[in-house]
Amino acid sequence: MATKSTKAVVNGLQLAPRKVSLVASLVRGRSVADALVILQYTPKRAALPLSKLIASAKANAIKTHGIQEKDLVIETLSVTAGTRLKRYRPASHGRAMPFQRKTSNILVVVTGEEKPKKVAKPVEKKETK
């Protein structure tokens, strides 16, 4: 059986990449089932979008690529900085202080063994008289 991989991506998540990568390091390299259980009990805001993304990668692997569910492992989980939104916060004496809203891009690659394909048995034709 061949090893196959599939991916899922989220771009522009409105969380700082530093905060997301803290949660991502908890599940990097683990099996998908273990990762989803860990994220379910992680009290961080980044845990919910990350678990949704891993569940999406799992669904992609099972439905479209025919990979066995029990063999799924997170191969890569990378968190990079997304676009920054420039905003202003009011300050004293009528001034405005600039700040940036940070966003994250997350890539999850899941690998596993391909399901064995079923071999169709040839249908025997009945003889007619």
| End-to-end CA span | 45 Å
Q: DSSP strand (E) fraction? A: 25-35%
Main sheet: strand order: 1-5-2
The level of helicity is 25-40%
Which stretches are low in confidence, meaning pLDDT under 50 for 5 or more residues running? none
Q: What structural class results from the helix and strand content?
A: alpha+beta
**Helices and strands, in N-to-C order?**
EHHHEEEE
Predict the CATH topology: Ribosomal Protein L22, Chain A
CATH architecture: Alpha-Beta Complex
CATH H-level name... which superfamily? Ribosomal protein L22/L17
Contiguous helical run count: 3
Mean pLDDT: 91
Radius of gyration: 22 Å
What's the CATH C level? Answer: Alpha Beta
Counting DSSP E segments of at least 2 residues, the number of strands comes to: 5
Biggest sheet descriptor: 3 strands, antiparallel
Number of domains: 1
What gross morphology would you assign?
elongated
List keywords for this structure.
129 residues, alpha+beta, Ribosomal Protein L22, Chain A, three-stranded antiparallel beta sheet
Textual characterization of the structure:
The mean pLDDT is 91. α2 packs antiparallel against α3. The N and C termini lie far apart (45 Å). The chain has a single domain (3-113), classed as Ribosomal protein L22/L17 (Ribosomal Protein L22, Chain A, Alpha-Beta Complex), CATH 3.90.470. The strands form two sheets. A three-stranded antiparallel beta sheet has the order 1-5-2. The protein has a two-stranded antiparallel ribbon with strand order 3-4. The protein is of the alpha+beta class. The chain contains three helices and five strands, in the order βαααββββ.
